[in-house]
Write a structure and sequence with these properties.
The chain has three domains: about 5-50 and about 65-115 and about 200-275, P-loop containing nucleotide triphosphate hydrolases (Rossmann fold, 3-Layer(aba) Sandwich), CATH 3.40.50; about 130-200, DNA polymerase, domain 1; about 300-360, Roll (Ubiquitin-like (UB roll)), CATH 3.10.20.30. Helices cover about 40% and strands about 20% of the residues. The chain has helices at about 15-20, 50-60, 85-95, 120-150, 155-175, 190, 220-225, 240-245, 250-260, 265-275, 300-310, 310-315, 325-330, 335-340; strands spanning about 5-10, 40-45, 60-65, 65-70, 100-105, 200-205, 235, 280-285, 290-295, 315-325, 345, 355-360. Strands 2-4-1-5-6-7 form a six-stranded mixed beta sheet, with helices on both faces. Strands 3-9-8 form a three-stranded mixed beta sheet, with helices on both faces. Helix 1 packs parallel to helix 8 (about 240-245) and helix 4 packs antiparallel against helix 5. The protein is flat, with a radius of gyration of 23 Å. The two termini are about 20 Å apart.
């Protein structure tokens, strides 16, 4: 499955600079609004040390990691919900992504123009939130209009959905995002077809200067306080540092990170946070031809996991042979794992665990 995260924010907050550093695709980075007009998509390899371990054990012809897509979307301004700036294009692009990476400027620099005239991360966040909320209200109102006629005819389902839609409308109009609404899971069916923008999970990236990369600053503190009730991650990332890391060889990167007191790059942080946000895990297939990582949703059963490889695997699923990486490392080969009785044979109800090494049996 392909994971796609949209990088959004006001113009000139560092979105494209961060995107350029994170991906092999290069977006134009310039000191004026709307230099990113079409969304740029960068496919990035997901780093996973377990692949290296399996490669050493299996010695395959090739190793295929899983990937994540970052989409650099045009900067949004106040009034975007009404078509200001590149609003309509922005809103259409953001509707297609799985998660939102909201980049917010948390550094002062007189040489970089701020679209609102001054650096204020809370204001910046609220501008984006308000525009998305207004667009969501518009979507909800359109469905309310459609359902009112049906509800008047006595349709019980329509009446129930209308009540839910009114709850969403009130929630959004009060300045709150759809993802924070407290309604029963079954009631969310009323808005499922609307693909509400503010229902998407979000990670806030505080784009800081080099001096603030480990401890933050007053801007970061204000942002964290503003999102406290959302239970969303706030990552401290310096787009400037990431740009430098992107130019280094792998051996040099670790030394560079150490100089700044960092354990991992901003890319690694984003991938880990994105997986956690979307409740994703990784399982592996391993053979002489290839060792490969596969991304699935945590909690999926074995047939669903098999379906990621090919739909025929899910349809004709018989069983799954499962090896734990620790056992593979201990016994050094699949044959030795089998002989030690450490290979499990699992059926349709097996819940796949992060790091499982799997081989599927299926009927064609």
């Amino acid at each position: 499955m392909s994971l796609q995260c949209g990088i959004v924010g006001l113009p000139n907050v560092g979105k494209s600079t961060l995107f350029n550093a994170l991906s092999s695709a290069k977006a134009e980075a310039a000191n004026f609004p709307f230099c990113t007009i079409e969304p740029n998509v960068g496919v990035v390899t997901v780093p996973d040390s377990r692949l290296k371990t399996l490669e050493g054990l299996v010695n395959p012809q090739k190793v295929i990691p899983t990937t994540i897509e970052f989409v650099d979307i045009a900067g949004l301004v106040k009034g975007a919900s009404k078509g200001e700036g590149l609003g309509n294009k922005f809103l259409a692009n953001i509707r297609e992504v799985d998660a939102i990476i909201h980049v917010i400027r948390c550094f002062a620099d007189d040489n970089v123009v701020h679209v609102a005239g001054s650096v204020d991360p809370v204001f910046d966040k609220e501008v984006i939130d308000t525009e998305l909320q207004l667009k969501d209200v518009e979507s909800v109102e359109k469905k309310i209009t459609r359902l009112e006629k049906i509800a008047k005819s006595g349709d019980a389902k329509a009446r129930k959905q209308l009540a839910t839609l009114q709850t969403y409308k009130t929630h959004l109009e009060s300045g709150k995002n759809a993802r924070s609404i407290d309604v029963p899971a079954e009631d969310k069916e009323a808005v499922a077809d609307l693909f509400l923008l503010t229902a998407k999970p979000v990670i806030y990236v505080a784009n800081v200067d080099e001096a603030s990369i480990t401890s933050g600053n007053a801007y970061v503190n204000a942002l964290k306080e503003a999102v406290q009730q959302e239970q969303s991650d706030v990552l401290l990332i310096s787009a400037a540092i990431e740009s430098q890391i992107a130019e280094l060889d792998p051996e040099e990167r670790s030394l560079f990170l150490e100089e700044y007191g960092l354990q991992e790059s901003g890319l690694d942080q984003l991938i880990r946070a994105s997986y956690h946000l979307l409740n994703l895990i990784t399982y592996f297939t391993a053979g002489e031809k290839e060792v490969r990582a596969w991304t699935i949703v945590d909690g999926w059963k074995a047939p669903q996991a098999a379906g990621v490889i090919h739909t025929d695997f899910e349809k004709g699923f018989i069983k799954a042979e499962v090896i734990k990486l620790d056992d593979y490392q201990q016994y050094q080969s699949e044959v030795a794992v089998k002989e030690a009785g450490k290979m499990a044979i699992e059926g349709k109800e097996y819940t796949v665990q992060d790091g499982d090494i799997m081989h599927f049996r299926f009927n064609v």
